[in-house]
Structure formats: structure tokens, C-alpha cells
Amino acid sequence: MKEDTARVTVSIPIKDLWKAMASDMRHVVPKVLPDIVSEVELLEGDGGFGSMLLFKFCPDVAKVRHQIERIVEYDESVYQMALEILEGGHLDHGFISYTIAFKLTQVTHAETLINIKVLYETKPEHKLIPGETMKSTFHFINCLEKYLLKDLST
User: Fold this and answer.
1) Where do the Bet v I/Major latex protein domain residues begin and end (predicted)?
2) Within 10 A of 152 (CB to CB), how many other CB atoms are there?
3) What is the DSSP string of 84-109?
4) What phi, psi does 9 have (nearest 5°)?
5) All domains of the chain, ordered by start, with CATH?
């Protein structure tokens, strides 16, 4: 199993960021990534630990129709969660396994540090480009921050 880590600071209060990334994820993701994700359906569970989510991708997304994820870690008391991809998505693009974990830490009242860890395995024939494991995550975080800043200013 390989591991990539990254850190990024966003201008969103920790409680608002956690709500969007964790408890409201099903409703927020299609609004944050409207050209990529058309719907997030709860397949199993209550949205917390052990829940399964189906991410349905828009027709224009190349080579991917869906991604099923299971929440394998969820601890609101320390703002930490992890999602394991079970089917589709990254697994259709050279990965055998892919789990992403987020740990949020308050920096200031209006800023949050996001520690990101990706655990993954690739197919032997897959040549991994450095940074490829984080590319979609950084895009999501950037779009989420813009969405929440717009939402908080209204």
C-alpha cells in the first residue's frame, strides 16, 4: 500500500467545513461539482461510519459513470473521516484500491487546515504520475471553498 499526504488551508470555519464535507456531503457535492457529479445517493447507513454512497457522474465525464464509496472512518469529535472507493471512479483509472482520509484542524476562527492522506495500490501496468492521487481532491476542496465562501457571504 502506498501513501500520499498533503495539507491545505481554507478560509472556512471548521464547523461549516465539517458540515459540508461530512454530514451534508450528499447534498453539497453535486452543487460544488455540478459538471462532474449529478447526484450522490445514500445506499446504506445514515451518512456516518459504515455508510455507502453512490456518486453518479455527469454524462460528459470521460470513462466514468459512477463511484461507490464506504465511510470507513467518521469521528466528528476530532473532525476526521475516511472514504474507501469500492467500485468505479479511481478504480476504473488504474487503481486497485483507494482510500482518502481528511483531518480538519482549526487554524483561526475563519480558517481550517485540512490534512489529506491517500492510501492506494495501482495495477502493475499503471504508471502513476506524481500528484495524480491528489488532483481530484484539490479540485474538490477548491470548488468547495468557493461554494462555501459564496454561501457564507449571503
Assistant:
1) 8-150
2) 12
3) EEEEEGGGGTTEEEEEEEEEEEEEET
4) -105, 135
5) 2-153 (3.30.530.20)
